[in-house]
């Protein structure tokens, strides 16, 4: 038997057939090119159809499909909420994919990408063999996939892992309203936002960001040239990343915290500094028991997680 | 059949026989009076013996014993670490109680008090029917009992719930080394500590704490008289309690957070203010889904939790 994993990202869609032990038998990748609403679902259905045809004609029949979406899945209604895709506010993904499946006896499992990242990492990546592990996804926003005693934590409302909202520096400021305190400073958008805030507060600054575009990538480059804005922004983020790690470790005592998402990437070289910051704050024994890692495969962890969702048929995720 | 629950606190020992549905059939309570090492174990054994005798002569035979300790239980070695009892660094509690049990076929379960508090509250208290609930114990120190999907979270090292170490206000200060940032300001000892810190920083203050003893109880009384030290200390703690709630809710999306421990008590009247602080910081939907409660029964929640430990025989806790 085989399974299909589908990983919908903000800009691309990757799908593959997997053997039960996790070998990729066939893979498809396509860019979304700003598609929205139905168009995204049609793209997904067309990839699914094409992979099902392969499955139908092979000895390894497909028995389940797992889908990772960059948002929240409401299993009660079979709908998804994906803020970065227009028209996917409450989108009936399950019923549309069920139609594609047709009369075949194939289970469909859907979960948020945070859950799939940690499933991928515990199955094939840096958390293999771990029952207690956390994936900290730092991209445009910040979220976490949390596994405890072998089960992915989703929370009764499906919102668990919303760590972008961590309160890490009092007093409260109204600027945290749209995204939370941690995400305000330490997401990809946060780095840019805080740099612009500092630029407007430091009129004497005459460095490269008076002319160069402020974005996360340029900030990392400028950090190496000791640009004073970049140093303030990145050092501030390292402090926040460390505090967030410390809090997750003190609360949950995991074996590993894995950093992924668009920012890690570039920020992976700061893992030692992040640990040094975290170890100051966190419960000392728990901090000794945890290791920090970069994602095993930023491009594929979500896809593998989607396949594992199909293979594992985790009741906790399918409620 | 029946079970025995034993709740060891820092100053007293309570034991009871329970029917399977949670009715107390017989209860014993005794103060520790500064007992240490063996003496505490002997006291526990004598209560256990006395309750076993009742069980032996009744139709409701005892089938299991659950024990709550104010520290950490190492199930591998059957030893407990209880910082507030002299000589209980690595104390062989399980083997001593097994001897008391003798030839009877009775299971013994031991767990930390945080785990027992949340078990008691989900069984008989303010979290009845909840699968996802947190007990925040604010006494001399701060810790949390966390239940996710019906299982108590302990972490691979048994340290989960060490929320006194939450990082809530940067930059880091060395004074957090012994206990963590959250506990430094917002535990019972923390309230006193911060008040003394403010007293030394505010030489112009001429209020009641120039003569009256600084302790949590007096600070709560003085708060009502708008004493400026008390107001700063308590308002500061409310901010921290709110941030901690927000962080637990954003990470875990629980149905309820229950406040207990020596400080709540007095601080229960601030639950609304704590919620108002938390709702500013936390993930907005998750904050709408959670309610804050005071412990159902501060005196007995741990005892009921110990009994539930015996009844439920939770593999997760007995590893």
Automatic annotation (TrEMBL), chains A, B:
Keywords, sorted A to Z: Kinase, Transferase
GO function terms (MF aspect): kinase activity
Annotated InterPro entries: ATPase_NBD, ROK
Protein's recorded name: Glucokinase
Family: Belongs to the ROK (NagC/XylR) family.
